[in-house]
């Protein structure tokens, strides 16, 4: 008998997660969906028409996760082998709340996952511009525009997400059991899924529906990827989700190219002191 696939979905009431939940259930995952408020429970449960017994809704505010121990308690309750982070402050509550959720809480879960041998995969939904250096396949003009958005429009969000991305990358790089997938979509829309994407080394700007982000995330959880960490940029495109995921896996595409891996490791080591 095959072992039960269990996933912890952090940010369960978010728009991407509400698309992702039924996809996971249809792929026989047992989902623990973490939501902030009990009033959100019905929204989560209503996404699934078949096999509702595969969903467990856990009410626990990620803003209240103040330590690795707090995060581990939630992981242990779920008995998950995979974790999906699709949560965030959403620009509400000012920079302090963004730091508390998008950076600090996420990093607590990363550290807890790295210390839990039964957790084998951590998929973090980030965003396309979350990087320190110009992607080698981008033009100088694309990088200048990206830096302007990061440092002016997203001046609180950018450093919080980057810190979480780098923490997960470094933690997976030293772990013997944890694999990191950082999925990096462009501007998110509420359009219906079209099932056609550009995955991997994409342009620096563009959009993608939340529904298609969820479809790619679901597929990535069900495939074997070589290496401890993979960054994948994502926009709408011309390739089917299945073919796109197959291609990046077979070609070992990793959009971390150009980033400072040594610096990430040093930062993680400094945090532990």
Number of helices: 9
Give the fraction of residues assigned to helices: 40-55%
Output the structural class.
alpha/beta
Average pLDDT reading: 95
* End-to-end Cα distance: 44 Å
Q: Mind explaining what this structure looks like?
A:
The chain has 9 helices and 11 strands. Strands 3-2-1-4-5-6-10-8-11 form a 9-stranded mixed sheet, with helices on both faces. Strands 7-9 form a two-stranded parallel ribbon. The longest helix is centred in the middle third of the chain and has 21 residues. 42% of the residues lie in helices and 20% in strands.
Task: Write a concise keyword list for the protein shown above.
single chain; 273 residues; alpha/beta; nine-stranded mixed β-sheet; two-stranded parallel ribbon; 42% helix; globular
Secondary structure layout plus pairing:
Elements: E1 5-10, H1 15-26, E2 29-35, H2 41-45, E3 55-59, H3 68-78, E4 82-85, H4 94-114, E5 121-125, H5 140-153, H6 157-174, E6 179-185, E7 187-189, E8 196-200, E9 207-209, H7 210-221, E10 229-236, E11 239-240, H8 241-250, H9 261-272
What's this, in brief?
With 273 residues, this protein is of the alpha/beta class. 42% of the residues lie in helices and 20% in strands. Strand 4 (82-85), helix 4 (94-114) and strand 5 form a beta-alpha-beta unit.
């Amino acid at each position: 008998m095959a072992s039960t696939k269990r996933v912890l979905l952090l940010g369960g009431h978010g728009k991407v997660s509400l698309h992702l939940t039924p996809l996971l259930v249809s792929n026989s995952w047992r989902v623990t969906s973490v939501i902030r408020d009990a009033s959100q429970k019905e929204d989560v449960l209503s996404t699934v028409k078949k096999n509702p017994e595969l969903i467990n809704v856990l009410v626990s505010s990620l803003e209240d996760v103040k330590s690795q121990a707090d995060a581990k308690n939630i992981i242990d309750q779920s008995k998950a082998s995979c974790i999906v982070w699709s949560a965030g402050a959403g620009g509400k509550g000012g920079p302090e709340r963004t730091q508390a959720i998008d950076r600090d809480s996420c990093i607590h879960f990363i550290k807890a996952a790295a210390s839990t041998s039964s957790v084998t995969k951590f998929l973090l939904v980030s965003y396309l511009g979350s990087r320190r250096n110009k992607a080698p396949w981008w033009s100088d003009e694309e990088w200048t525009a990206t830096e302007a958005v990061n440092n002016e429009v997203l001046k609180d969000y950018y450093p919080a997400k980057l810190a979480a991305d780098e923490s997960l990358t470094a933690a997976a790089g030293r772990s013997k059991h944890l694999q990191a997938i950082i999925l990096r979509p462009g501007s998110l829309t509420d359009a219906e899924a079209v099932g056609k994407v550009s995955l991997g080394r994409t342009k620096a700007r563009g959009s993608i529906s939340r529904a298609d982000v969820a479809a790619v995330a679901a597929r990535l959880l069900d495939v074997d990827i070589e290496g401890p960490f993979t960054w994948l940029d994502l926009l709408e495109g011309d390739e089917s989700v299945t073919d796109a995921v197959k291609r990046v896996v077979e070609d070992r595409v990793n959009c971390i190219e150009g980033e400072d891996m040594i610096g990430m490791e040093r930062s993680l080591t400094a945090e532990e002191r």
